[in-house]
Amino acid sequence: MATLSFNPTRIRTLVGLHFTKSKPISSPFSQSIKTANRFSANGRISQQPLRRFQSNSVSESSVSVPEEVELNEDEDDPTLEMAYLDSETDPESITEWELDFCSRPILDIRGKKVWELVVCDNSLSLQYTKYFPNNVINSITLRDAISSIAEELGVPLPEKIRFFRSQMQTIITKACTELGIKPIPSKRCLSLLLWLEERYETVYTRHPGFQKGSKPLLALDNPFPMELPENLFGERWAFVQLPFSAVQEEISNLKETFMFGSSLDLDLLGIDIDDKTMIPGLSVATSRAQPLAAWMNGMEVYSVEADTSRACLILSVGIATRYVYATYKKTPVTTAEAEAWEAAKKACGGLHFLAIQDDLDSEDCVGFWLLLDLPPPPV
Ranges for the RNA-binding protein Tab2/Atab2 C-terminal domain (predicted)? Predict the structure, then answer.
C-alpha cells in the first residue's frame, strides 16, 4: 500500500460510457473498457498488458496571546511568525503563490479568534505567515500584506495567486486585482493544504490561545454536483490503471511537450510508491480531444470521484464546483467495479489521474492531470 506524508525536509518550522447531457445516456459498462487495464467485478485488478500512459527572518507575533507560557529550550515559539526564502532559489522564478487568509482555533487577549495569513509557493521555496486581529480583516489589509511579503523577501509580486476558500473570494480577488495579480480559485493548492495540516499539529495546538474542539470558521464547500457544460463533453470513458513508472513518464512528457495537463510535486508530498504499483485513473476518449483538453486545462481540475449511490462520476474543479462527469447503468457488476476503483485510489493515498485521448485504444495522451484527494484542512 502506498503511503503519503508531507515531506518535513521541505518545511521550515519554528520547531465508453456516455457523458451526461440533459438526459443521462449509458451503454453497457463492459464495453467501455477495451485494451486498457480494467478493474474486475470482484474488486481485484486484472493483470492484462497495460497501455502507455526558514527562515530569512522571524518576527514576533503581531497578535497578543492570553498568557505567557514557558517553552523548553529545544522548542520553537508557536506565537512567532515566519518569513522564509530559499537562498538557492531565484526569486524571479517564483511566479505563483498559494494563499490562505482565515481564522485559526486561537483566541487573543480579547477572547476573539486570531486570523492568519499563510503564503507559500508550490515548492515551499517561499514560506510566510503573519497573525492578524479579527477587526482588520479586509482587502486593504490583505493587499498591503501581499506587498510587504514581496518587499520583505525581495521577490517580485507573483503573476498568480491560488486560494481554496470560496468565502474569501471577494476579499482575495479585490486585493489581487489592485496589485495586478491574477487570482485563481483552486483546490490545487496542495502544498498549502498539507502545510496547514502540519501547522495545526506543530504550531496551532501548541499556541497558548489554542481552543481544542474549535470548528473552522470558513468550512470548505461540497456542493451538489451540477450538469456538465457542453464544452466538457467526451464520448467514451474507461476506468484504467498505470504502473507508477508510467505515470512518472507522463509527468515528464508534460514538461517536455506541449501536452495539456498538470502535475504534482511528488517529492514534496513524500509519496512512497514502488514503480510497479498500479495507479488508478480515468481515460476519456473523444474525436475532439485537443479542444476538450484545452478547456480542461483552464478548469483547475482537482479530483474525480466514483459516486456509486448515483451511478456516476463526479468531477471537481476550481474551489467548489462539482459536475456529473459521466453516468453508467447501475448493476452489481458496475457498482463493484466503481468500488474497486475507489478502493485502489484509497490504497494509493488518494493519488489518481485523468487522461484525455483521441481513442481508448491509443497509446498517447492529449492531456494528463495527476490528481490527489486530500481531506479538508483542520483549520
Answer: 216-371
Fold of 80-204: Nucleotidyltransferase; domain 5 (3.30.420)
pTM of structure = 0.81
pLDDT tens across 92-126, in order? 999 999 999 999 999 999 999 999 999 999 999 99
Q: Is 38 left (phi over 0), alpha (psi -120 to 50) or beta?
A: beta
Q: Torsions phi, psi of 330, nearest 5?
A: -80, 115
Dihedral, 83, 89, 93, 96 alpha carbons, nearest 10: -40
CA distance 198 to 108: 22
Task: Specify burial of residue 146 (Cβ count, 10 A radius: 0-12, 13-18, 19+).
Answer: buried
Domain extent listing, the chain:
80-204, 224-370
Residue 138's Cβ-count burial label (10 Å; 0-12, 13-18, 19+) is: exposed
- What is the longest distance spanned by two Cα atoms in the chain? 67
Q: Where are the beta strands (DSSP E) in 108-254?
A: 113-120, 126-132, 160-163, 182-185, 226-227, 236-243
